[in-house]
Amino acid sequence: MEAGFSEMRNELQSRDAFCRRIQLECQQLHTELLKIREYKDKQEFQKKHQSSCVQLTEQRENKNAGLLLLAQSQERQREELSKIRNHVYREEQSHRSEQERMETEISDLTEELHQKEITIATIMEKASLLERQLKMELEIKDKLLAKQQLLDFQYKVIKSENTHLKEMV
Questions:
Q1: Which DSSP letter does residue 47 get?
Q2: In sequence order, what are the residues at sequence separation of 6 or more whose Cβ sits closer than 8 angstroms to the Cβ of residue 30?
Q3: For residues 88 and 12, is the Cβ–Cβ distance under 8 A?
Q4: How far apart are CA 122 and CA 126, in angstroms?
Q5: Contact 74, 23 (CB under 8 A)
Q6: CB atoms within 10 A of CB 74
Q7: CA distances from 107 to 36, 66, 85, 93, 102 (A)
Q8: For 152-162, what is each residue's pLDDT tens digit?
């Protein structure tokens, strides 16, 4: 996008230079036109070379027509230059607003990520604590189960001795 802006700026500068050259040519043509008018006035004053006057008049008219065409061309160039400037301005504004939107979005995502990292750390701490508690409970249950099995075994032994004693009695 930056390259597009640079290209448009270069084109604007090129067209500005072209418009300045046209203005300079217009000034030169205007100066020539003034000289032609002076020459014509001298010719009319001296009543010599009427054919030259006609020719100069035609040249002046041609140059006037050329000046008019140049002025029209210059006006079109100005309009086009104005359109290009407006377009570049709109593109720059669009680019700036898009860049600001992206910066805001990145900031929001960074904050969200930070909050998620905090949540994950909290969950990991709780999970670690629960894991330790579960291990302790498992150890206690294993001990109780071993005790229960021992007691069951002792009960069976005593029961069998009891049965044996009852039979003997």
A1: T
A2: 67
A3: yes
A4: 6
A5: yes
A6: 19
A7: 71, 60, 33, 21, 8
A8: 999 999 999 99
Angstrom CA distances, 104 to 2, 99, 100, stand at 21, 9, 6
| pTM for this model (two decimals) | 0.40
What pLDDT sits at residue 47? 64
Angle made by CA atoms 78, 64, 38, in degrees to the nearest 5: 125
Of 93, 94, 81, 97, residue with least CA distance to 10:
81
User: Widest CA span of the chain, in angstroms?
Assistant: 175
pLDDT tier for residue 110 given thresholds of 50, 70 and 90: very high
Nearest to 11 by CA among 76, 74, 69, 83: 83
* CA 49 – CA 37 distance, rounded (Å): 15
d(Cα 124, Cα 120) in Å, to the nearest integer? 6
